[in-house]
Amino acid sequence: MSILDHIGFAVSDFPASRAFYEKALAPLGIKVLMDVTAEMTGGPAYCGFGKDKPDFWIGEGKAPGTPVHVAFAASNRALVDAFYEAAIAAGGKDNGAPGLRPQYHENYYGAFVLDPDGLNIEAVCHLPE
């Protein structure tokens, strides 16, 4: 069982960030599972991404200052590569191309992209493939 139930933060341009994350996370099988409108909250709108339940949330507001880092699990290295390509195509900025990061452990294979607010988003696989 994961130690976190869910995580979320505000983004400066909600529609742009939502579009970025929808494209970047699609290769990992992660999609929008829930929308919470401003009418529902009486304040900012949010959307929750996940596979079975919304684990990752973004919402309208002021983006947090850097550094913020969120790593998404990938079941194989090809999915890390696909995440990276999708995130770059969606307007993300390279922050570390897919590859081994042996400083973490011998099978750590990750890719890092900066989202529209400059937050560090990663996909990682811990398997030897």
From TrEMBL:
<keyword id="KW-0456">Lyase</keyword>
<feature type="domain" description="VOC">
    <location>
        <begin position="3"/>
        <end position="126"/>
    </location>
</feature>
<dbReference type="InterPro" id="IPR004360">
    <property type="entry name" value="Glyas_Fos-R_dOase_dom"/>
</dbReference>
<protein>
    <submittedName>
        <fullName>Putative lactoylglutathione lyase</fullName>
    </submittedName>
</protein>
<dbReference type="InterPro" id="IPR037523">
    <property type="entry name" value="VOC_core"/>
</dbReference>
<dbReference type="Pfam" id="PF00903">
    <property type="entry name" value="Glyoxalase"/>
</dbReference>
<dbReference type="InterPro" id="IPR029068">
    <property type="entry name" value="Glyas_Bleomycin-R_OHBP_Dase"/>
</dbReference>
<dbReference type="GO" id="GO:0016829">
    <property type="term" value="F:lyase activity"/>
</dbReference>
